[in-house]
TrEMBL record:
Full protein name: Lysophospholipase, alpha-beta hydrolase superfamily
InterPro entries (UniProt xref): AB_hydrolase_fold, Hydrolase_4, MAG_DAG_Lipase
Domain of life, per lineage: Bacteria
GO molecular function: hydrolase activity
Transmembrane spans: none
The entry's keywords: Hydrolase
Domain Serine aminopeptidase S33, first and last residues per copy: 31-291
Provenance organism: Ruminococcus flavefaciens
SUPFAM superfamilies per the UniProt record, alphabetical: alpha/beta-Hydrolases
Keyword Hydrolase: yes
Amino acid sequence: MLNADLKEFQLTSDFDELVISAVLAVPSGDINGIVQIVHGMNEHKERYYPFMDYLAEQGFITVIHDNRGHGGSIMEADDIGFMFRKGGEGFISDIAQINKRIRAAYPNTPVFMVASGLGASGAKCFIKGYDDCIDGLVLLGSLYYSPFSPVTRAINSVASKRPGSRFRSEKIFDTIDDCLGKFFEDPINSWRCSDPDVVLAFNEDQLCNFKPTLNGYQEMLWIMRNSQSGTGWQLKNPKLPIRFISGKEDMAMVSEKKFMKLISKLEKAGYDSISHRLFDNMRHDILMEKNSINVHKDIAKTLFSWLDRWNEERLEAAAEVAAEVAAVTAAEEAPAQQENEETVNE
C-alpha cells in the first residue's frame, strides 16, 4: 500500500469467541477521519486494499475485517462460507465490536462507514442500535430481499430437506447465478463487474469463488430480511447522513424501483438525511469497475462534506458550552457584584 502503513490484527469475537482477522491502514500524513469498511458475501478484505489506499491519500484511516466465514475469519479451511451458529447476529456484533475498538483507539475523530453488498445489509442492521456510533454511512451495491424471490425459495427448499448446516448446494448456487447473471454473457460471476479482468481474478480466487454452506445462505437471508424490517430501530441519531450508491446494471438490487424502495424504508425508519446515486454501466462490485475512480471520488466528496458538518457541529457545541459557562459564571458573580455596590453606596 503506497499511502498508508498497513497493520494486521486479530480480535476474539464477543459474540462467540471466533477469531476475527482485520487490518488497519494509517496514512503517513494528517488524519481527517476514519472509515470502517464492511465487505460483502464471497469476498475478503484484501479486495478493498486499492480503495483503502485511495482513502489514505485523502487522509482517512481505514479499518476492515474479514466477515465471519470469510477470508481469515475461520477456524479451519472448511469454514469458508460457514457463518457459525446465529451467524447473522454475530455478523452485526462483529461490526459493532470493530467500531467500538476503532473509536476507543482514536477518540474525538469522526468515524464513517462504507459497506458493500451483504455488508451494506449488515450495516443497516448495525445502525438499528448503533447509529450514534458513526458520523455517516455509505451503502454500496445494496441487496433487495424478497421472501418470494427464486433465491429465497431455493434456500428454503434445500433447508426443508435438512441436509445439514454445512451442506453446499449446487441448486442454490445455480439459482443465484441464474437470477443475477441472466442478462450477462459468460463467464460465471460476470454479474459482479463489467471488467472481465476483475471477474477472472474473482473466479481464480479461492476465497471468493466458493459455494457457501446452507448455514451461510440462511444467515445471509436473515441479515437481508432484518435490514429491511420495520422493527428494532432505536433511532438515536435520525440526522445520520446516509448515501446509497449502486451501479445501474447491478442485478442484486433487482430494479431501480426496488432500489428506491430500500431508501424509502430508511426514511420511514426516521432518517432524514439520505442521498443516492446510480452509476451508468456499472454492476455489483462498483469499487472494482473500470471507471471506479468516479465512485471513489463521489465517496471522498461525500466524506468531506460530512466532515465539514461534523466540524460545524463540534464548533456549535463548543459555542453552546461556552455560552452556558458564561451564563453560570455571570449568575455566580452577580450577588457578589451587588454586594460590592451596596457597600460602596453605604
